[in-house]
Amino acid sequence: MAVYKELSPSLRTIMTPGPVEVDPRVLRAMSFPVLGQFDPEFTSLMNETMAMLRELYMTNNVWSYPVDGTSRSGIEAVLVSLIQPGDKVLVPVYGRFGYLLVEISERCGAEVVLVETEWGRAFDPEELIQAIHLHKPKLVAMVHGETSTGQMQPLADVGKVCRELDILLVVDAVATIGGTPVETDAWYLDAVIGGTQKCLSVPSGMAPLTYNRRVEQQLISRKTIERGLRDSDCARAGERTIASNYLDLSQLQDYWGPARLNHHTEATSMLYGLYEGLRIVLLEGLEARYLRHRINEQALMAGIEGMGLALYGDLSSKLPVVSCIKIPQGIDGERVRRMLLHDFGIEIASSFGPLKGKIWRIGTMGFSCQRRNVLHVLGALEAVLRRHGYNVSAGEAVQAALDVYAGKEKEGVLC
Amino acid sequence: MAVYKELSPSLRTIMTPGPVEVDPRVLRAMSFPVLGQFDPEFTSLMNETMAMLRELYMTNNVWSYPVDGTSRSGIEAVLVSLIQPGDKVLVPVYGRFGYLLVEISERCGAEVVLVETEWGRAFDPEELIQAIHLHKPKLVAMVHGETSTGQMQPLADVGKVCRELDILLVVDAVATIGGTPVETDAWYLDAVIGGTQKCLSVPSGMAPLTYNRRVEQQLISRKTIERGLRDSDCARAGERTIASNYLDLSQLQDYWGPARLNHHTEATSMLYGLYEGLRIVLLEGLEARYLRHRINEQALMAGIEGMGLALYGDLSSKLPVVSCIKIPQGIDGERVRRMLLHDFGIEIASSFGPLKGKIWRIGTMGFSCQRRNVLHVLGALEAVLRRHGYNVSAGEAVQAALDVYAGKEKEGVLC
């Protein structure tokens, strides 16, 4: 037998668009001994988690619970539970994760209408409203915060139009939840999927989501109960049956609801982590948390520009928790990233598809979104760029960021 | 805002068929700070996890990795990645979890042939071989250890026949992996799915699996690459495309393999837990671990019979990690379970469907499978039964179990 090393991960400053650093209180929570899944203490924790998710998602939706899988499991759960083969689904795409919505919808058998805008901007809501009127889909699926391009799509107008036309609006808020407002009810969002490993600063592995009565009605009309659990032998899988068992929200809500119908075995330790992560978010307060994210973003941007680098993309629709930086001519972006990790223990991200090798992406998310991290990454990036022969204004980046923090303190804003 | 309580779960003695108690070393591992998903340190951990899974599954299969979801996500991943609509799938059922295989296969569009035997026994391999010859399915899906009835299906003969007839054999080893031998290669199993929260004693939330070249060939023939990641815009989802993105093994193996193609964000802390859990299993040694499970099972059974209770099911095919006990006439099984939990902090399980209210199920799995737990549950069950007016031979249960341990020690067997 080979001998396997004791686990001993290095400490990192993680400034990517996720996974990001985890609050030590969340890590501690994940190390608590487990409870059984139907232990009354555990089902209480499930209920309290649902209550906290409602606050986070700014919603009165009964159904607000995590799917046991990474973020895209939650996206797929919503889409596979709503889409029937042949349904028309409109997906406006402004980056990589829009394509993921296309891909999942296609696999669910949807007739997908893809509307694209160039990468680096969001849609003008009017463009979207026109497309919705033109195509009259059953469902619109959209990304709220597109980490691949650092852009954020305003959703309130789109939501209103979808509601008026009785179209379902499904939103991927994986990157935004907990870092910038996601107003489920006020924006008329029918289903919203969040991520744990970004602004919530809980490890990857759960996909908290919420959906309203309009979605629930669709689910109920497609519901079957597992043969091993149902009393009679009537319902078999039929034409309208949801194609997945694991991601069937009609079954999941019977597990999370008072029926407590056995489905999977809830991921205990991940739930402990999510519970504690949500508690920390609500203790900080949503408004204070969003403000913290905005201030650190401003400091980071000031530092990036202060050292003479250029930001990528339309700043008027910038995603506040991800900043994209154009890699200067003649610089090998991957070598810079490797040196940041190797010498400074800092991770920043590259990007995908057409942006591969052209931009770096720096996240300011959750627990990673703090002053010492912003200052550390600016100082380190400057040093690495100089080491690669790029002529930066030495020392200016950190000073520019410090100016932002000092200015906020003068205004009496804590961050 | 409501005030949410600090997390503070009670300590439990968990003697169910899962989730069971977690080794403190695994809990500690889950509290380590996270690494980024493409951090070289993290991808090394992924590779080492795969190597350990190969040892656990007794296989040379390249592909041995976890799906990020609970056990049934792994089962569905294998089935949805292999089954195309209209494929004939044979599912021999001897308990509830066989029905789950039927349900998932139906949702994948399979033409399912269900062969059943009464609950409380396993199939004679000859019955299965005849059914396979009769129906000539593309795929046979079977449960190895059926926790709902406490039965285990011998698989070696079935595997050999399937291989001869070029039929794929998919095995749910969720309950058995790490507690009793699962010989993937020697038994000719094509794909095997394990569970974390049972004999591996890692929290629920991952589904480690393994599959061979025969399975891989099928996957490759159905593979597509996400639009956001592929270079050209050729392949769209087609007829043969795997219906799920999240559970698409052809994409997952490109993430776990040297291509490292981005799919989901690996569940870092769960992987830490699995890594440490596997390391602990291999440090103990598979043979020693199986023996420990056998001895504690024997002690438990001796105790149960010692207090005058009867075991349920065919003992010749008994699942060694779950013991089913007939609830005596006149005893309310749920009241007994509630008192065990409330007064003794012990959890044992009820059962499903036709066995609901008729049997209790006691697991002896992983870290929970230890002498002090077996003695504790026997003493407590006796006390609770007496409290409910059932006439047990007082004190005999624990003595009978101690006799088993003493006998083993005399033979020089450590446990």
Automatic annotation (TrEMBL), chains A, B:
Annotated Aminotransferase class V domain residues: 40-350
GO biological process: glycine biosynthetic process, by transamination of glyoxylate
InterPro entries found in the cross-reference section: Aminotrans_V_dom, Aminotrans_V_PyrdxlP_BS, PyrdxlP-dep_Trfase, PyrdxlP-dep_Trfase_major, PyrdxlP-dep_Trfase_small, SP_NH2Trfase/AEP_transaminase
Pfam (any one): Aminotran_5
Positions that bind substrate: R361
In-chain residues carrying the UniProt-annotated modification N6-(pyridoxal phosphate)lysine: K198
One Gene Ontology molecular-function label: alanine-glyoxylate transaminase activity
Family, as annotated: Belongs to the class-V pyridoxal-phosphate-dependent aminotransferase family.
Protein's name according to its UniProt entry: (S)-ureidoglycine-glyoxylate aminotransferase
